[in-house]
Amino acid sequence: MWFFARDPVRDFPFELIPEPPEGGPPGPWALHRGRKKATGSPVSIFVYDVKPGAEDQTQVAKAAFKRLKTLRHPNILAYIDGLETEKCLHVVTEAVTPLGIYLKARVEASGLKELEISWGLHQIVKALSFLVNDCSLIHNNVCMAAVFVDRAGEWKLGGLDYMYSAQGNGGGPPRKGIPELEQYDPPELADSSGTVVREKWSADMWRLGCLIWEVFNGPLPRAAALRNPGKIPKSLVPHYCELVGANPKVRPNPARFLQNCRAPGGFMSNRFVETNLFLEEIQIKEPAEKQKFFQELSKSLDTFPEDFCRHKVLPQLLTAFEFGNAGAVVLTPLFKVGKFLSAEEYQQKIIPVVVKMFSSTDRAMRIRLLQQMEQFIQYLDEPTVNTQIFPHVVHGFLDTNPAIREQTVKSMLLLAPKLNEANLNVELMKHFARLQAKDEQGPIRCNTTVCLGKIGSYLSASTRHRVLTSAFSRATKDPFAPSRVAGVLGFAATHNLYSMNDCAHKILPVLCGLTVDPEKSVRDQAFKAIRSFLSKLESVSEDPTQLEEVEKDVHAASSPGMGGAAASWAGWAVTGVSSLTSKLIRSHPTTAPTETNIPQRPTPEGHWETQDEDKDTAEDSSAADRWDDEDWGSLEQEAESVLAQQDEWSTGGQVSRASQVSNSDHKSSKCPESDWSSWEAEGSWEQGWQEPSSQEPPPEGTRLASEYNWGGPESSDKGDPFATLSARPSTQPRPDSWGEDNWEGLETESRQVKAELARKKREERRREMEAKRAERKVAKGPMKLGARKLD
């Protein structure tokens, strides 16, 4: 019945990869790479071929097979499956690499760190302690060839071929018969008299000393070389000397050796070992301990090996979020570890967790995600952004916490390129209109304007025509001075999206009104923008053939390439404004502008003659100097404290908050001078349209605008020349009017004014007619019955 016979090797669920063996341990075993047939997951396969006349070696291999199958410990090579036939033995374990090959590859790649070695030796000693103290077994083969390393960099103890019982059951130690292994035997084994007093762990601790020597110095040439520690670290030398001492009685127990090395200042007393020990026991740790651990973990990840972060830290972080309710604290280390992953691994492991996090109602989680969106946005595809992320993110626009509203605005810079037509041109514009008109925080209104300028190139042509001019015009009427500056910069950054008619009839009238603004920073930017728009109009006037080229982007489809000007100004403009945000909100939370309570802009006199001017100027100038070093603002730096007081943002005395608006705007309006006025240094003008290189000299006796004292202190008898001119009412930005058809331009306002004048004239004419009729009745008296009306 031979046709019923089956080849057990062929039916084995694992297969060998056709590659040469990996240089396994000296002895009968050959180490091969393999994989599971069903899943393709990698494994290591130890193969022993039964040879006639080698019964002793066969018995040793079968004993090793049995030991590995029955021993289970995190620091001992993990057994997966096995096959025993008359011709061969196959032992399948987790995918590992021999320690010698691993160390050589690490040295050639990026250098081997003592942190890795300290944890690796800690694992081997812990495995020896388990065998000797818990199982009463002597390994009898501790050497470089018996240690293997898995993909996470964990050291595993293998080579169980010559293991025997410490209690004397089953006879003495088996004979090795391999010179490469016998050189690690301690000197007392050569004494056949048996008079030497020793402990059961003495021989294995001697071999551990040989392993330490080889890890730092390379292959051991002879036993006499152990007298010279060589490259062994100084903190480990005293403990190493105890291991290779001639007296076996004084060699320490593996558990005591670990305790000595873990003492303060010891070789195994470091952050890497502590992190690994915590991860091994994380399931039994208290929630408070886990929170503290994850908060401190991100600081140490840069010094940890990459493989350790990918294969050991990352699974623990994902498990902690999925089942441990770790919350927002896992985000920072999670994204830090994510840098080590390939794009495919990131999509499989990180993105599903991120998508799930966005649906969380935890405010700390949401603000951390928004803060760190830059680290994972490139891995998100457009359908995921539009269907699973954006619907949750937009809730941040309506949040009562200013920190979340501000961070949500900033996140739109990253999400806008991936948003579809409806989300970008309809949904997002509605939220931006409401924030710019109604938000109680001036810096958030300002950042909304800046963000709109940066994403303007992604909008459709019809949305750009309806939105941009009206939005930036509204910003120029904001009582918060940096918002007015942002409106001017928004016009200039999107200059290529306006027709010549819009520039002449809509934009320039608005900019000209800002030339008498009480804030010098606003006036400076307004003059620059006016000169540039005039230069553009003049160039087209001189050469009308340039009109088509100048207006090529006006009706073009949305394209990120058209946002070059925005990229040149927003990188510092947003930073300059947002660095004020936390200070303004922390000390002076402003109220939303209303028709009955409009925050008045500081007058020039109050702005220049305040007694605390020097103090405020010093504080604000120092803040201005730090604008380029900060990212949008520092509200997020105080997210935790703000979240704890979330109710205070939506409640509280409106009267006191209204009284603080003027003061906060007064202090913050001076700060942007140093950075907002650096437009030309940023190169935004040079990237767009150049100003005329030569200018005609003004008529004699004419004072240039630059000769006026726009912002400096003047004598007491001479006030600001614009003090009387700038007393225009602080107009309230129109309420949420960025709908489909409500983007009124400046011509709409002029039509409304004309209609109002016509109505007043009709009313006056009607009153005049009624007065004349009344006069005639009084003069003639009442009419008699039957009298004829002659007139």
Automatic annotation (TrEMBL):
Record GO terms (molecular function): ATP binding; protein kinase activity
Pfam families, per database record: Pkinase
Chain intervals with Polar residues compositional bias: 587-600, 643-663
Protein name (database record): N-terminal kinase-like protein
Biased segments, Low complexity type: 684-694
Superkingdom of the organism of origin: Eukaryota
InterPro entries linked: ARM-like (IPR011989), ARM-type_fold (IPR016024), CIK-Related_Protein (IPR051177), Kinase-like_dom_sf (IPR011009), Prot_kinase_dom (IPR000719)
Species of the source: Pongo abelii
Functional description taken from the UniProt entry: Regulates COPI-mediated retrograde protein traffic at the interface between the Golgi apparatus and the endoplasmic reticulum. Involved in the maintenance of the Golgi apparatus morphology.
